[in-house]
Amino acid sequence: MKYLAFLALALIPCMAAAAEPSDAPSGPQASQPFSSGGFIRLHLSPGGYTITNTSADAIQITYTAPHSDELKKVKVKIQTSGSSADVSVSDTPHNNFQATIEIPSRSNLRVRMFAGEVVINGIEGDKDVELSAGRIEIKVPHPEEYGRRDASVHAGSIEASAFNISKGGLFRSFTQKGAGKYRLHAHVATGEIDLPGPI
To answer: Which is nearest to 114 in space by CA: 10, 2, 16?
Structure first.
């Protein structure tokens, strides 16, 4: 199908970020105190991002790129106000940029990015994630914690073993209502969504 060829072309530069060797130069860390239970908005330039938990009451970001001169151009801002935070990562290299964003394990998330890969692991709370092109993976070890959950792609695939869903093609989506208190929303215009359940 034509959309598969387009999808492959769109994802090549995005997925390269996840495949870059770990010995790439590391950029300076950014950190800001932030308490558990808050709402974090992430505004991300293209790249490969892992969002994971930390035992510290803080938001901490580390990032890498193939060349140190590219790292100097990256701008990272963390602004907090009470129980909410705005995090922006901008001016990232076009290829092979990776970042790890550590946040308190109990946090509500909103993520927006044009293209790349976002992997979320070890975070309890609401999740609202949208990409124009690329891949979203949200690990769901406790599916029962979610009430409304929905995912959609214009072209691509949804593999949500956590909710017994597998779909691929054009304009695929699902919506469910569970008993949990958290909300999960994931959307990719062109790409894939993975919502793996407990192993």
So the answer is: 10
Angle at 83 between CA 82 and CA 87, to 5 degrees: 95
Query: Confidence band (pLDDT; 50, 70, 90) for 26?
Result: low
DSSP class of 20: S
155: nearest Cα among 14, 4, 12 = 4
Does residue 13 register a pLDDT over 60?
A: no
Residue 199 covered by a domain:
no
Q: Is 21 exposed, middle or buried (0-12, 13-18, 19+ CB in 10 A)?
A: exposed
Residue 9 in any domain: the answer is: yes
Domain that holds residue 120: 2-194
Task: Average the pLDDT over 144-161 and give the result.
Answer: 98
* Contact predicate 74/96, CB 8 Å: no
CA–CA separation, 47 vs 1, rounded Å? 27
With a threshold of 0.70, does the pTM exceed it? yes
Sign of CA dihedral 132, 134, 137, 143: positive
Where do we find the tokens 């129980």?
83
Residue with tokens 């909300």: 183
What average pLDDT does this structure show over 20-45? 80
Domain count across the chain = 1
Question: How many residues make up the chain in this entry?
Answer: 199
